[in-house]
Amino acid sequence: MDRKKQCLIITATITPNSNFVTQNNPADRRIEYLEVLKYYTANFSGDIYFAENSGYDFAVDEAFKLLFDLPNVFSLTFPTSTKIEQGKGYQEFEVLDGVVSRLENKYDEMIKVSGRYVVVNFKKLVSQTNNGIIIDRHKVKQVAITSFFRSNMDVYQSLIKGAYQLVNDSQGTFIEHVLYNKLKEIESSKIDLFIKTPLYKGVSGSYGGSLNRHPLKTKLINIERALLKKKGIKELKKEFK
User: Fold this and answer.
1) Which stretches of the chain score pLDDT less than 50?
2) How far apart are CA 164 and CA 144, in angstroms?
3) How much is the pLDDT for 206?
4) Cα–Cα distances in Å, from 224 out to 17, 136, 142, 196, 234?
5) Domain ranges of the chain
6) 65 contacts: CB under 8 Å, gap ≥ 6
7) What is the pLDDT of residue 207?
8) Are strands 133-134 and 191-192 parallel, antiparallel or unpaired?
9) Rounded to 10 degrees, what is the CA torsion of 14, 16, 22, 23?
10) How many CB atoms lie within 10 A of CB 5?
11) Which residue, 3, 26, 193, 223, is the most exposed by fewest CB within 10 angstroms?
12) Which listed CATH number (3.40.50.11810, 3.30.160.620, 3.90.1570.10, 3.90.550.10) goes with 4-231?
């Protein structure tokens, strides 16, 4: 069976199962997830997988059912994680591993988005050529931005699969740190930054603030990206908001 080029995986937890989230109202989270799924169905023509791990009953939610009736939108459910103290990054990538295990033979590449985040310039960023993995990394804080990235299935399986088991938010070891260190192992030719800064709309699940980027800072960071690309450097100096 021939594999399709891309799929989009949206991770979701409508009823939080972690001590490390700021938006913990299930009704509000449901609305945010619903709007996000509507956005991506309007902006991505490939297959979309909505992966939820809190046991939410979509069978009685008419708004979600309408979206899951679309031919390219699929609901995947996973059991609630037992690892509460390890935090939301642990639980999210526990689910992501499960999704990739089901889909790895169907697609060349997965696009991952944390479920309450709208990437405003999504279409541009998913058209960028990907030789392995495209992900923003920041050298000073030594973090990889996990809210939105693209990875070939073989890269995910060989490098990222199982990495979540090293995460423990209660001890200050976050998925962003773990993934940054794992990506040191990849060949330079197989990793890249996004050509433009991803523009997010939404509220951070970690600190509760707006994800909107300051326009001037965005312009400056995009200049930095262009300069780094010319030099063959694959990570930004520091994270910015």
Assistant:
1) 20, 206-208
2) 13
3) 47
4) 38, 13, 18, 10, 11
5) 4-231
6) 58, 59
7) 45
8) parallel
9) 20
10) 9
11) 223
12) 3.90.550.10
Task: Look at residue 121 in the predicted model and tell me its pLDDT.
Answer: 96
Q: Show the tokens assigned to 112.
A: 């991952």
- What is the CA 78 to chain-centroid distance, rounded? 17
pLDDT of the residue at 84: 82
Total count of residues recorded for the chain: 241
> Of all helices (H) and strands (E), which one includes residue 11?
strand 4-12
* Distance, CA of 134 to CA of 128 (rounded, Å): 9
pLDDT (0 to 100) of residue 83:
83
User: Which residue blocks in the chain are alpha helix, DSSP H?
Assistant: 26-43, 62-68, 88-103, 122-125, 153-155, 175-182, 215-231
Residues in a beta bridge with 201: 118
* pTM assigned to the model: 0.92
Please state the φ and ψ torsions of residue 207, each to the nearest 5 degrees.
Answer: -120, -5
Given this model, what pLDDT does residue 209 score?
Answer: 52
Contact 116, 200 (CB under 8 A): no
Radius of gyration of the chain (CA): 17
Residue 20 one-letter amino acid: F
d(CA 45, CA 217): 31
β-strands 143-144, 118-119: how paired? Answer: unpaired
| Number of helices followed by number of strands (H, E) in the chain | 7, 11
CB 116 within 8 A of CB 31: no
Task: Give the Å distances, CA to CA, from 161 to 13, 26, 165.
Answer: 20, 29, 9
Number of C-beta neighbours around residue 235 at 10 A: 19
